[in-house]
Amino acid sequence: MDESCCTVSRIDTFHDGIVFSNRPVELEEKVTLKILQDDQKWHGGLRVGFTWEDPHLQSGDLPPFACPNLVLQGKTCASVLPDDYLAEGTTISFWVDSQGCVFCSTSLGAEGSFLFGGVSVKSPLWAVVDVYGRTRAVQLLGKQLQARTICSEESPVEDCMVCFASEASTMMFPCHHTGFCSVCSVKIFKASGRCPLCREKVEKILRISLLVENEGPPSGSGKPEGIHSLR
């Protein structure tokens, strides 16, 4: 993955190329990417889909394939794209509707082609892209989405998923979702009072640095010094 987190490439094998969007996507929001490299020595190609399991909370190593491995773990639906869509330079958009059906369009003329169904739309959804087989590198287009990987050696420092300008430094309590800077956390609380990832009511906003010092979030009504309730 490059520094912009928009270009993802696979180096050695034909698998181990699963990445996620850096934030949840909306229903009918198009995820658009461009195929940069097509390696003809492999078979099969790009897989795309959606997961309703927060990638930030996934633990352990990812499986080598989105299909069938990640799909069989539950909370993910994905499918391989047709071979006709895999040429270098092809631009592909995919999205999910309110019924959980996934469609795609391409620069080659495919418009609103049905890919698969079964996506749960009751929870936040993250886009899944598996840079697999013939597809060696892709670029995520547009400024609103970036890619992220999940691995055991990933740096714990990440940008706020709302403003992308400050370090994510807070946790929503009691849902324990992270990924927000302190300024955006306060704005979220004042605007809706609910976590934007799971929509659970926020009782407190906790500073992650203090959680580390105190070895975890509070389990009851008590709170470490410096962690404030926003009721």
From TrEMBL:
Gene Ontology terms: cellular component: early endosome
Domain of life the protein comes from: Eukaryota
Keyword tags: Metal-binding, Repeat, Zinc, Zinc-finger
Residue ranges of domain RING-type in the record: 160-199
Chain ranges of the NHR domain: 1-143
UniProt-listed InterPro entries: B30.2/SPRY_sf, Neuralized, NHR_dom, Znf_RING, Znf_RING/FYVE/PHD
A GO MF label: ubiquitin protein ligase activity
Cited Pfam families: Neuralized, zf-C3HC4_3
GO biological process, one term: positive regulation of proteasomal protein catabolic process
Stated name of the protein: Neuralized E3 ubiquitin protein ligase 3
Annotated source species: Pseudonaja textilis
Gene: NEURL3
